[in-house]
């Protein structure tokens, strides 16, 4: 839906984009004030997919609430679940078996690859290139096949549990992951040839949607959005969890701060995820895939917080416990909400035609923002 809703006293045009519009990638409503084609203000309106997830969690047990987060950023289900499992384990002071830690990190990085692949295809399509979408889904389909075989779902997975993972990996897991990684290594140069080096694509992205390092910090941006403006904020590096501290990988940081920099950060992050999987896939330890925990979990009285690096940035989980079998309060710090808050700042002075490129490089998943 693209509908004119009036003009201001100064003669500026005010239009709606969304809540149902292909460029918003979900039910997001933007009220945009324009002077000709120049953007004067972008005002996001939320609430169309609000489900009170945090309130729902307060009536669910410490095993059950984890899986509501699969319905937030549904492209980072495993990583969201991982954050929730970590905060419960922190409260219970449970030691996680090495095998479970490695499986979790492998699933996290496969999830990051699947998410970045979908973003790459959608990003190219947003600015007019249809073909890359089919290339991206060809590779992403292989990852969802692995996910389905391992945990029975292709999108909203429920696999991480307090103490480890719900079930051991499938016997075909290592073979299929190795085949996937070998294929991706050969495909990424094709992606660069098809999109990254394309002069038309670069002209649409360079200098568009700029945000400085200081402003990225001020708006609370995280993930590739912040790192493209020179902010070092990868939670896997700053506050490593499970076996990330033992792995060799680079935090991708650029300083240009525009849409093209955010694009390049995600492309290089896919290469780093491949390097992480390469280090782990042949050395998955033997042993238990889940630590022994009580059937009914109770966290001691107190406040607990953990954070992880999702495909879109920092996800924090904050729990207040009164010692019962359900959380007294839960708050999620999702990356999309803070990144969206910077959209107005990034878009002012730009052209309405460039807004799609700016939004595409924010990689918004609306149910993560509008919980």
Gyration radius (Cα, Å) is 21 Å
Strand content: 5-15%
Q: Distance between the terminal alpha carbons, to the nearest Å?
A: 23 Å
SSE string, helices as H and strands as E = EEEEEEHHHHEEHHHHHHEEEHHHH
Strands of the largest sheet, in order across it?
1-2-5-6
Number of helices: 14
Can you tell me the residue ranges where pLDDT is under 50 for at least 5 consecutive residues?
A: none
* Oligomer category: single chain
Q: Determine the fraction of residues in helical runs and give it as a percent range.
A: 40-55%
Structural class: alpha+beta
Q: Give the number of DSSP strands.
A: 11
- Rounded average pLDDT: 90
Largest sheet: 4 strands, antiparallel
What would you call the shape? globular
What this model shows, in words?
The longest helix is centred in the first third of the chain and has 29 residues, at 98-126. This protein is of the alpha+beta class and 371 residues long. Helix content is 44%, strand content 15%. It has a 4-stranded antiparallel beta sheet. Strand 9 and strand 10 form a beta hairpin. The chain has helices at 53-57, 77-92, 98-126, 131-151, 173-196, 199-205, 213-218, 223-227, 235-238, 259-280, 335-341, 343-347, 355-362, 366-369, and strands at 2-7, 13-17, 20-21, 26-27, 29-35, 38-45, 160-161, 164-165, 302-309, 314-321, 329-333.
């Amino acid at each position: 839906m693209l509908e004119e809703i009036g003009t201001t006293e100064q003669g500026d045009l005010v239009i709606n984009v969304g809540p149902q519009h292909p460029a918003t990638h979900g039910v997001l409503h933007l009220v945009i004030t324009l002077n000709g084609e120049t953007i004067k203000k972008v005002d996001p309106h939320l609430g169309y997919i609000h489900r009170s997830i945090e309130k729902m969690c307060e009536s669910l047990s410490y095993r059950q609430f984890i899986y509501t987060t699969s319905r937030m950023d549904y492209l980072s289900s495993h990583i969201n679940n991982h954050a929730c499992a970590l905060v419960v384990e922190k409260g219970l002071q449970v030691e996680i078996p090495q095998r479970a830690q490695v499986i979790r990190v492998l699933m996290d990085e496969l999830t990051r690859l699947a998410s970045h692949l979908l973003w790459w295809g959608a990003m190219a399509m947003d600015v007019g290139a249809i073909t890359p979408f089919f290339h991206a889904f060809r590779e992403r389909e292989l990852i969802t096949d692995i996910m389905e075989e391992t945990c029975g779902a292709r999108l909203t997975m429920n696999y991480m549990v307090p103490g480890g993972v719900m079930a051991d990996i499938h016997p075909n897991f290592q073979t299929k992951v190795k085949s996937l990684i070998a294929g991706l290594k050969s495909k990424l140069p094709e992606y660069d040839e098809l999109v990254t080096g394309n002069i038309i694509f670069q002209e649409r992205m360079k200098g568009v949607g700029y945000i400085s390092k200081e402003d990225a910090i001020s708006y609370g941006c995280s993930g590739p959005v912040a790192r493209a403006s020179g902010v070092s904020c990868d939670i896997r590096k700053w506050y490593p969890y499970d076996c990330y501290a033992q792995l060799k990988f680079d935090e991708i940081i650029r300083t240009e701060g525009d849409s093209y920099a955010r694009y390049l950060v995600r492309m290089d992050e896919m290469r780093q995820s491949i390097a992480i999987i390469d280090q782990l896939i042949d050395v998955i330890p033997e042993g238990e895939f889940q630590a022994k925990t009580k059937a009914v979990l109770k966290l001691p009285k107190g406040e607990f917080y953990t954070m992880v690096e999702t495909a879109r940035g920092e996800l924090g989980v904050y729990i207040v416990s009164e010692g019962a079998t359900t959380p007294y309060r839960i708050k999620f710090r999702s990356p999309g909400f803070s990144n969206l808050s910077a959209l107005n700042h990034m878009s002012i002075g730009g052209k309405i035609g460039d807004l799609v490129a700016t939004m595409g490089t924010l990689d918004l998943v609306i149910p993560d923002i509008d919980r």
